[in-house]
UniProtKB/TrEMBL annotation:
Pfam families per the UniProt record, alphabetical: ParE_toxin
GTP-binding in keyword set: no
Keyword Transport: no
Protein name: Type II toxin-antitoxin system RelE/ParE family toxin
Key words, A-Z: Toxin-antitoxin system
Residue runs in coiled coils: none
NCBIfam families in the cross-refs: RelE_StbE
InterPro entries: RelE/ParE_toxin (IPR007712), RelE/ParE_toxin_dom_sf (IPR035093)
Superkingdom to which the source organism belongs: Bacteria
Originating organism: Trichloromonas acetexigens
PANTHER family: TOXIN RELE
Amino acid sequence: MVYRIELTPAAEKSLAKIAKSDRPLLKRIDQALLALAASPFPANSKQLVGEDPPLYRMRVGDYRILYQVENDVLVILVVHVSHRKDVYRFLKR
């Protein structure tokens, strides 16, 4: 059972910035997203506390991928991708 990956506009914008500055990192993030499609809860993911609907984070080096899993429609919604020092500021908005 493979999930479909969808990106929010914020995630698309973040990935576009990464694409301009660090292509090897973008490749690692792409590989992580493909792995996420096959298994939405890998060992290096954690559920974030206090988020409704539940949000998960996945580590890719110093970067974090924030995502939601919609099991009923087999979709993983990537909410944001950012450096670890900035990613949680996004949640406080």
